[in-house]
Design brief:
The first copy, chain A, has 178 residues and is of the alpha/beta class. Chain A has one domain: P-loop containing nucleotide triphosphate hydrolases (Rossmann fold). In chain A, 41% of the residues lie in helices and 20% in strands. The first copy, chain A, starts with 9 loop residues before the first strand and ends in a 5-residue tail after the last strand. At the A-C interface, α6 and β7 of A face α6 of C.
Chain lengths: 178, 178, 178
């Protein structure tokens, strides 16, 4: 386990589709830093995604530094260790890893290790995907499983965990005293 | 933004399928009013829905005034501005708007505006639909997106937001002092 | 209604797929009892399930007594009334009842009655399945409905209800004073 720190802090922001989780994380990080780094993990493959990326970018404005990286999230975090960082989102990163046949367990361990080295505030946005009916599709079921594991691992590393519902944050885990 | 009021109050009641959200909202409104108005937005098209509507109606009993309106929710709210009202539910209303090709964004703006004019207590029941695996069906994905946006908009207008899980209410947003 | 008791207590542990609900329930019961009884309701039919059962069993270790019972949950609870019991999980039990064409309503009533007779601590793990998009498949929709009803019924019997998200427990219902 990492030594407990009040600051710098890792925060996991969970929420369903269109729960307002990204906007919540953006607002938090803007209160902390003038020049935050935005790590976009989306592969801008399909038109739906391109539109969403464009909308998020316009909302953030020009003070953000944007880094697009769909696979090597750990490498990018390492390069920006002193910055205030928003990763949007872990679920898409996990999807990219699975589609490109990476070892997911190893990637998650490396991410967990890197998060312990953070020297600035890191907000990680992730989807809650396991509270609906179990999908019939075996791949979707597998994804559901791995995404749940990922959220547990990162929640256990994070100092704070926030669940966003209809734009409203609930604090699930609060930082412990050092 | 509307001027903040302690009363009359708008409450959004969120919850998954069969979470007990309607029953919770019914109980709340019965504590407030002897003759509440129930606005049913369901299109009683299929047998499954007819059965559910019948069950809800029997549960409510005869003291309620029931208005069935699948599209013009804003018009009905306007006509009953002084009443204690239960809208059951926003998700079906949204489905009806989409199927009948209405401008959803405009309809949501009008609803938000009308809620600011309420002179009685209004409870709006809505489904949480975005916490499962993303559906493969593009229409379902689109619906998921729009339903999430709707819940955010109405939650931001509401004085209180309650999330019901297995019949148990959690208060996500509480009324602010005037 | 059963007479309210501080102890022995019935606890319902809710959560999505891979939310950490089973692990949370295991930890709770190990704090209470040296020799807890684990009631596994899974039908070890498919390879995916066999793997999951094996993983859970290894995690628990040898101090547990394991009972495999996919249908007659009430009978097994009756036989172990004085024990600390973990039922994992109600959702699979419900699935088995439906597939074998049992009367679900009657089975749930019997379970509720039996829970009032418990003389030790009983933890029941159950899935939250209703917070995703409504499935197109009619059977899945029906299941979603019945699972929601079951969670409401058991939550109403339970002294405590806990919702686990990404491994983090939220207390939804706390025991009332006797």
């Amino acid at each position: 386990m990492a030594t407990k720190r009040a600051l710098p802090a890792v925060t996991l922001v969970l929420g369903g589709t269109r729960s307002g989780k990204s906007l919540y994380a953006e607002r938090c990080i803007k209160n902390i830093s003038q020049q935050p780094v935005y790590i976009a993990t989306a592969e801008p493959g399909d038109p739906e995604m391109i539109k969403r990326i464009k909308r998020h970018r316009e909302r953030r404005g020009s003070s953000w530094q944007t880094v697009e990286e769909s696979i090597d999230l750990v490498g990018v975090l390492k390069m920006h260790r002193k910055s205030a960082i928003l990763v949007d989102c872990l679920t898409l990163w996990l999807t990219n890893l699975i589609l490109a046949d990476y070892d997911v367990e190893e990637s998650l361990s490396k991410l967990a290790l890197e998060l312990r080295q953070a020297e600035g505030s890191v907000f990680l946005v992730s989807n809650e995907v396991g509270s609906g009916i179990m999908p019939e599709n075996a791949l979707a079921r597998k994804f559901c499983d791995v995404a749940g594991q990922m959220n547990q691992i990162i929640a256990s590393e994070a100092a704070s965990v926030v669940l966003v519902t209809a734009g409203i944050p609930q604090l699930l885990k609060v930082p412990q005293e050092v």
